[in-house]
Amino acid sequence: MKISKLFLSGSGLIILGGIGLVLIKQFQPATDTGVYWQRGFKINRLQTKQQEIPTNLKQIIVDVKGYDLTIIPTNAKTGHIKRTAQTRNYPKIRLSKGVLKISNAAKLTGYQLQFGRQQVSKITLKIPKNKQLQQLVLKNKTSNTNIKQVNVKKVTLQINKGHLVIKNSSIKQLAGQTVKTHLKISKSSVAQMTLASNNSNVALDTIIWHNNSQVISQASNISLNNNRVGGYSINNDNGIINVNQKIYYNLYHSIESGQPILKIDNNQGKIKLKT
């Protein structure tokens, strides 16, 4: 192929644009920038946008891959959502009738040339302190999610290869599944939970339980620390149960009062209980 034809092609234009950006970055080294071809050249740069969340917010649905998500309270009367991401991976936000939906940017085809490390997209939701959400749905893959001081009636999880931390929150009902995930719930009030866990690390730390709850897991490591509960029913096939540094094999039952009971059914993993 002649050089003139190469530079008239899409690949050639990307090379020229990339060389130009390299020269520019010598004078602006702090900016992680790139170019991509999608029906013409576009610049892939880091952007931050913020918008207000309506006061009638009832439900949040997050369906993302590779995003860092933070949900925290605010003293303001209205909530806000802040997005920091590069142009080509900017998350989609939809607000309609009290439902907020967050999803990945539409999949784009074409060439891309990136200079410097591509930034992880970050989403921060600020919810008014006195607001109770009807439902929070998390469908995340390879994402880091941190939730603090949230009051929600129903939490639904579908987490794959991610990290999820819930702290200082009040939850009426939590249900869902985790796969190859690090899940930690701490210093919270949970009325009822039904969780399916596969090849995950699950930590339940300083939780006030109000109703019978259950974790059904396969090849997971589970840590139970200082929970306020009526008793435990723990079954760990092919594994040990460490209760206050005392070892039990396969089974451990301790019923202190009638309600509630935290039941753990696990297979091939470690369970550590500290009362």
TrEMBL record:
Q: DUF4097 domain: from which residue to which, for each copy?
A: 58-258
Pfam families, per database record: DUF4097
Superkingdom assignment: Bacteria
Source species: Periweissella beninensis
Q: What is this protein called?
A: DUF4097 family beta strand repeat protein
